[in-house]
């Protein structure tokens, strides 16, 4: 079925940086697009970034474009989100999740991590 | 960017009742790119439906999805105690970004 485990969250001051990691196990990591999704306190889910299987297609939400960088290492089954110029509004639980689209059918984000909490505060 | 509007914001129902949740898109898209999730507090989101109407692995058949174009629906035929949660629709196509609706909270009446 597969498992994802996030790490790296914590308390950071506005303008600071943080590196989130997501370790995958139990499935063929290189067969799935990987995503970062966050949930700010009292808010809904927000997709923020995705990276395709071979890293050829990388996308960001406008809210993080230019500040966040996603990368993956298929050999190590790991996903990383580098976050810079952090803002108070980046405070959220950050989830990694896998998905895939085959022949124009989107199979959804079917495996999620438990999330890691990022708090941006002075 | 496709904007998904979910309604109602909150649905107050009793166990055993039927829940009907709506997801309306700002522009039409292929139904195979629509998914639904359940999110309980303190837990990771859970995929319920993909391709608008296909139940994910292990999802009970009281959950069903329908719709096309700009209008999609998630139906829970008879609410169980564990179904009280927040539900999100999501679209993900070839044109990024992926987007979620703002969610519908199903609460106990």
Question: Helical amount among residues of chain A, as a percent range?
Answer: under 10%
For the secondary structure, the number of strands of chain A is 13
Mind describing the biggest β-sheet of chain B?
A: 7 strands, mixed
* Euclidean distance between termini CA atoms of chain B: 35 Å
- Quickly count the helices of chain A: 0
The stretches of 5 or more residues of chain A where confidence is low (pLDDT under 50) are: none
Structural class of chain A: mainly beta
* pLDDT < 50 stretches of chain B: none
Radius of gyration of chain A, CA atoms, in whole angstroms: 14 Å
Q: Approximately how much beta-strand content do the residues of chain B carry?
A: over 45%
Q: What share of residues are in beta strands of chain A? A: over 45%
Q: Mean pLDDT of chain A, nearest integer? A: 97
Q: Overall pLDDT of chain B, averaged?
A: 95
Index terms:
heterodimer, A: 122 residues, mainly beta, seven-stranded mixed β-sheet, 0% helix, globular, B: mainly beta, three-stranded antiparallel β-sheet
């Amino acid at each position: 079925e597969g498992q994802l485990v996030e790490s790296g969250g914590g308390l950071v001051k506005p303008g600071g940086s943080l590196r989130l990691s997501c370790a995958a196990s139990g499935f063929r990591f290189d067969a799935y697009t990987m995503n970062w999704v966050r949930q700010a306190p009292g808010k809904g889910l927000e997709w923020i970034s995705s990276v395709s299987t071979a890293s050829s297609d990388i996308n960001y939400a406008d809210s993080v474009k230019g500040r966040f960088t996603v990368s993956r290492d298929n050999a190590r089954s790991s996903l990383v989100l580098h976050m810079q110029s952090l803002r108070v509004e980046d405070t959220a639980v950050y989830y990694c999740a896998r998905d895939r689209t085959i022949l124009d059918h989107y199979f959804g984000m079917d495996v999620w991590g438990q999330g890691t909490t990022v708090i941006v505060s002075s | 960017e496709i904007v998904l509007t979910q309604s109602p914001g909150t649905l107050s129902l009793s166990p055993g009742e039927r829940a009907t949740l709506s997801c309306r898109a700002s522009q039409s898209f292929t139904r195979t790119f629509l998914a639904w999730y359940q999110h309980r507090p303190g837990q990771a989101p859970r995929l319920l439906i993909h391709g608008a109407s296909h139940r994910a692995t292990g999802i009970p058949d009281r959950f069903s999805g329908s719709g096309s174009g700009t209008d999609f629906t998630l139906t829970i035929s008879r609410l169980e105690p564990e179904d009280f949660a927040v539900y999100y629709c999501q679209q993900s196509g070839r044109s990024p970004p992926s987007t979620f609706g703002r969610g519908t909270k199903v609460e106990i009446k």
